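Researcher: Here's my situation. A collaborator sent me these components and asked whether they could plausibly form a single complex. I don't have experimental data yet, so a predicted model of the whole assembly would be a useful starting point for our discussion.
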Amino acid sequence: MSANRMMETDNTALLHDPDRETELLVGIAQRVLDRAKAGGAEQAEVSVGSSLGREASVRLGEIEALEEARDRSVQVTVYVKQCTGSASTGDLRPEAIDETVDRALAIARNTQPDRAAGLAEAGQMATAFPDLDLWHPEDIPLDDLVARALTIEQAGRDADERIANSEGASVTSEANLAVYANSHGFIGRLRGTAYSQSCVLIARDESGMQRDFDFDSQRCWSDLAAPEATGREAARRTARRLGAERIPTGRMPVLYTPEVARGLIGHLVAAVSGGNLYRRSSFLLDAVGERVMPEWASLIERPHLPRAARSAAFDADGVATRETPLVEAGVLSRYVLGSYSARRLGLETTANAGGVHNLELAGATHSFDELLAEMGEGVVITELMGQGVNLVTGDYSRGAAGFQVEGGRLGAPVEEITVAGNLREMLTGLVAAGTDVDPRHNIRTGSLLVGEMTVAGQEG
Amino acid sequence: MYEQVLDSLLAPAGVGEKELELALGRLVSSQIDFGELYFQRRVSEGWMLEDGAVKSGSFDSDQGVGVRAVAGAGTGFAYADSMALPALLDAAGSARAIARTGGNGMVRVGQPRIAPARYGAHDPVGGGQSSDRVELLRTIDAYVRSLDSRVSQVSVNLASSRESILVAATDGVLAGDVRPLVRLDIRVLMEADGRREQGMSGGGGRWSLASITDPEFWQEHAREAVRIAAVNLTAESAPAGYMTVVLGSGWPGVLLHEAVGHGLEGDFNRKGISAFSDRMGEKVATEECTVVDDGTLENRRGSLSIDDEGTPSACNTLIEKGRLVGYMQDRLNARLMGVEPTGNGRRESFAHLPMPRMTNTYMLPGKHDPGEILASVDDGIYAVGFNGGQVDITSGKFVFAASEAYRVKNGKVGAPIKGATLIGNGPDVLTRVGMVGNDLELDSGVGVCGKEGQGVPVGVGQPTLRIDGLTVGGTG
């Protein structure tokens, strides 16, 4: 196959001449802002994105899908006499863009005035744009993506004789360019690449079938884990689940591994985020200055980490990001606010329009094995299922799978159980954090040892 | 419908049947089983009220063409946001890379398929000129607040969309559809005695906007949201452990969607990775259980006149009197399994590949009065509202999270209990259905099903069911 045939000149431009492509996006943004102003908007903001993605998927040694994705979009918000209107389109022809602006203006003529509406203050716009090392373009032929996926899957299938089937392996490459601009004259340019590989395997024995996966994702192609490592880890994670059973219902310590511990911290972030606060839909209302985690724990936002998942010089409002603590020695030091929610609450933006940028947990002291020893008896959770989280009350009840812990050691696999508690108590009652941090994610935490929770399984 | 979509969607891009034939000709070769063009345009509009005012609204439009070439179990796929011929030919060139050969065959588009329309070609999108919608949301807000003085926050969302699609394939499939969809959601926060709880209710379907503005419709959901919030204000801790669970009729049918629905999708079974693989003809439920997936129901949220591959929708029986009798199929998986497509090939948009997906999945009514079912329970819970669920199709384990539930003791419904997750095993949960009610109800039209990152609207339904053993994840 000649994979090069898949490239259009249009697409290579994005990879090889991102400056030129970015200035095309700036031109579109300018057109939008000009038309919004002419149409009566006192303020306006626009995001324009352009991306190129490729994905090769294989299953049982054969190609399953070759995909090429070329996405472009324009999103505009206008403010007319404190009334807000938004519109978006995936059609970047000039007449479609003009129509989209007109739609946004028409919406704004129908919405009601909102004193909190509008851009962030002009003085808050980012003025420094450090190189965050997020752009590592590579024109990787589909054939190479296919070859890598085949290697990953084969390594996984060869790693353990109980691997009986496969959902396949896939390898992706992605390049994203974006421009955020607003009527303060702010123009922010974003670019980033992302590469990923994953493998999903099926193990089988007399007890039945189990499925699990492993993956890696990086900004730079050469930073990806060896393909064999991802395949073998997928096999290990899958085979170890065979023979999983329910355990008796009771109260016991629960250890969250990093893949699920992230979610716990994520619930805390959601509970102190502006939208949930001004809707009074949070179990952490008015909690700044209060203890929300144990004294040994701090959470620090680090938006300028090189090559990291969510690094950015400015937030979705154009406001300059900076390194700031969210939780210090267990005490909540601030909320997570964009300019809109900040105005709703009578506070200042924390440059978190669009969310947090690389949140790190500090205070970890234990290796994973030391955490097991610390808990003695209980259950390790490696997977959570379902939506049983109520942010209004903090009530928490989710499906789970993992392993028993006996005598401080990892024991038999467990499934079809639930873990339940209240998030406020779970977070303040955290016993210890692990040093086994997974740095590939926006929330960077190791394993978390939660105090006692109710685990439901068989009749107690 | 095909002619209408051809005129409104393709003609402005300069594409007619001759251009379709050119692009399909670029796809066709002896190495591929079939190639397909999927044209789509979707416009949607949303309005949101909070704090007593409609403070935001949005209008979104997206259009493009997805092109795929299928060879065996392999698919080549590319898409373009332009429908003009050069973009079509480029995408076709990329998609056919799967076949590893060039091809320039001749394709003649055939006769468009005529399928019975399951909904009208309404246009519920106002295009931003929509003061009536704003007025409606304000009226709803005032009504909700008049119902109970403990209501402290009200949010109301109104979403409407209209999607036009056209499918043309190298083997003669040719079909079009226009799909309206509307949805209203009301959320209430109630505060009393230092407690805060929420209640939500909503509904919709493939309707015109007039059906939403009918006071009978929105007043019912307003009262329901307020009632649920009030119930939850007095809820006690839910029990923990394995016990009898009675599920109410309607939306609790999310049980069927998670426990058996996903496991009966053709792709998972073709690959042998579903807990239901190779179990065709076997007993997977009690005699009283018959489960169907039905895309033909009039005006329902999950209904389709044709699926996203041009196959007319159908009422497919999945489980008949306890026995597994059918899977849900798209074209690729049906062909590889040697069966016919069932009208379940769906995709989120032109930028996604189709897969076997559910439409409206429900259980047929049984013979028991719901009161009789509750009276038969010594110790358990009665769950009538749910947030949603999830399943691991390989191990069969599924969860769904209750949002309104009650303790049941000695046949009497007692105190409300806090939301709790229920967890079970798909292949055997229906073998423990002790009683099936005679009160089949479908949900109100709010379901979204996610699979491999693609969301599509679906429906569920069931009569009241008694399940003799399910793990309840409370704290008490």
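Model: Some features of this prediction you could bring to your collaborator: Chain A touches chain B through 82 residues (CB under 8 Å). The mean pLDDT of chain A is 95.
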